[in-house]
Write a structure and sequence with these properties.
The protein has 9 helices and 17 strands. It has 362 residues and is of the alpha+beta class. The chain has one domain: LCP protein (Aminopeptidase). A 6-stranded mixed beta sheet has the order 13-8-3-4-5-14, sandwiched between helices. A 3-stranded antiparallel beta sheet has the order 1-2-17. A hairpin with a 2-residue loop joins strand 1 and strand 2. The protein starts with a helix and ends with a strand. It comes from Acetatifactor muris.
Length: 362
């Protein structure tokens, strides 16, 4: 064998080793990614149990004109099913629900001085992922919704529950995990024991970072706002950047009746636009959620882990979101002795739960 042939043979061996090394790395990476996805999925679904909600809705069905008794001619009837307005419903066990809170603090998350200084949740939303339909639903919950709130004193001693605005529940805690866990319980109770698979509370000071991470948001103002730091007329188109997004989402005239309700409409409008921008960003770069996660980490408290985010990011491309996917809790706002109070319409809430979290059985 000539020297040239030996050299070519050596080069082929080196190239083969390089290709094999690359193949091993790709295979190993794929395995790690798959394991992370599976781990994230299993972790998310282990967080919640639907039994309490199905039992409560079944009991309430009779009061609202539905039925829960098994019917002999319906061979597909299962425990927990509901027949309402002639339609057979069953809870979608594959659905994922997350609670998102906007906390009225500009600073980074830090320990609080006492157990009643955790900050109020000025924005309350449920994000619902339905893998069967590929739909993302967002339910806006008024901050002044009257519901059972756990009350504690400054030292954290439990006093009991009382009907109060949902927003104050977050204040009774540590401003971090404990406050979020109590808010999750309050929202779950409001929705008859709805399973909530994770939470994310973000201090309002993070809004400029969230907004600019997708290049800003363009929208048409739904109301006139005239504040020293931010002015805009109803119908005017604006591309929100930096603190402009904060002012648009946070500002309100507390002396004007139902200003919180009008602010909620602005927040819903913004979320519709942001969801589309975020989904596009994920489709272009699957690491976008992790990048955003790291950017917000100092302003955010969440129990959604990196493996769970990895799983959700991998699923994002298969989901869609539209204006019709954005829903609100229906009810009436009245002036209480001191503050405004929002009372949900029980039947409307019941029908909302059936619409979003249940499926029609053919």
């Amino acid at each position: 064998m000539s020297g040239k042939e030996k050299k070519e043979k050596k080069i082929r061996r080196i190239l083969m080793r390089v290709f094999l090394g690359i193949a091993v790395l790709i295979f190993t990476g794929a395995i790690v990614f798959l394991v992370t996805q599976i781990s994230g999925k299993n972790s998310l679904y282990s967080h919640a149990d639907s039994g309490e909600m199905m039992a409560k809705l079944s009991a309430l069905a009779i009061e609202l004109g539905g039925t829960v008794e098994e019917e002999e001619e319906d061979e597909d009837w299962q425990s927990g099913d509901i027949r309402y307005n002639g339609i057979h419903y069953r809870y979608n066990e594959d659905i994922l629900t997350f609670l998102f809170l906007g906390i009225d603090k500009m600073s980074e998350v830090a320990p609080v001085e006492d157990a009643i200084d955790g900050g109020q949740s000025d924005a309350v939303f449920l994000l619902v992922l339905n893998p069967h339909s590929g739909e993302i639903s967002v339910i806006g919950i008024p901050r002044d919704t009257m519901t059972d709130v756990e009350i504690y004193d400054e030292k954290g001693v439990y006093w009991g529950t009382e009907k109060a605005q949902l927003s104050i529940q977050h204040g009774y805690g540590d401003g971090a995990e404990l406050s979020c866990e109590r808010s999750v319980k309050a929202v779950s109770r409001l929705f008859y024991g709805l399973p909530i698979h994770g939470y994310c509370a973000v201090n309002m000071g993070a809004i400029p970072f969230i907004n600019d991470a997708v290049g800003g948001i363009e929208l048409s103002a739904v109301e006139t706002m005239n504040y020293p730091e931010f002015k805009i007329k109803e119908g005017e188109t604006i591309h929100l950047e930096g603190m402009e997004a904060y002012y648009y989402l946070r500002s309100r005239d507390t002396d004007s009746f139902n200003s919180a309700g009008r602010r909620l409409e602005r927040q819903k409008q913004y979320l519709t636009a942001y969801a589309s921008a975020a989904i596009s960003a994920v489709k272009e770069d699957l690491t976008f959620p992790l990048t955003l996660y790291n950017t917000l980490s100092k302003y955010m408290v969440t129990d959604i882990g990196v493996d769970e985010i990895s799983y959700l990011a991998g699923q994002a491309a298969g989901y869609h979101f539209s204006e019709e996917s954005l829903r609100s809790l229906q009810g009436a706002t009245v002036q209480g002795e001191i503050y405004e109070e929002f009372y949900p319409d029980e039947q409307a809430l019941y029908e909302l739960i059936l619409e979003v979290f249940y499926e029609e059985v053919e």
